[in-house]
Design brief:
Elements lengths: L7 H4 L4 H5 L10 E9 L2 E10 L2 E5 L3 E5 L14 H12 L3 E6 L4 E7 L2 E2 L4 E7 L2 E2 L14 E8 L1
Parallel strand pairs: 1-10
Antiparallel strand pairs: 1-2, 3-4, 5-6, 6-7, 8-9, 8-10
């Protein structure tokens, strides 16, 4: 996984006073969510993760933004389910992979912790118990959301 730059060049774009203000609703402020990854044989990950929308890199899909602006879903960057999966993977040292589909402006998650649907299943994404109606880089997460990636047979 590539590291994501959060260096001084990002801070230079706003005055110091703006950096200290609390984030307004709808901004890309980090949120803490509970992430569950349920494989065919049981849980692969279950824990809390802090996330915000950011660039994501996968072996199959390359580097693309995954910040809620995908597909014009939101006008500014927001935390997303796929960014939460990516942050959990980087912080907890597990792998995931997904193909990038330019026509959808989003990743399709195909493998988590070496578990792949293999044409007979897919990774369903739900938030607070409801399957999301858009891609995982397009759905806005809020603090406290319950995010689940569930291996689901066709």
């Amino acid at each position: 996984m590539a590291s994501h730059c959060h260096g001084p060049q990002h801070l230079a774009s706003a005055p110091a006073a703006a950096q200290a203000k609390p984030a307004a609703p709808g901004t890309n402020a980090p949120v803490k969510v509970t992430l569950t990854v349920q494989g065919p044989d049981g849980p692969l990950f279950n824990g809390k993760v802090r996330t915000r929308g950011h660039e994501v890199t996968t072996a199959s899909g390359g580097i693309h933004r995954c910040d809620g602006t995908n597909g014009g879903a939101h006008t500014s960057a927001v935390p997303t389910p796929t960014s939460a999966l990516d942050d959990a993977a980087r912080k907890r040292n597990f792998t995931w992979d997904g193909t990038w589909y330019a026509s959808f402006d989003d990743f399709l998650v195909e493998t988590v912790k070496e578990v792949n649907g293999g044409g007979v299943a897919y990774w369903n994404i739900s938030v607070n118990g409801t399957s999301i109606p858009v891609g995982g880089c397009q759905f806005k997460l809020n603090a406290g959301d319950q995010v689940a990636f569930t291996w689901t047979a066709f």
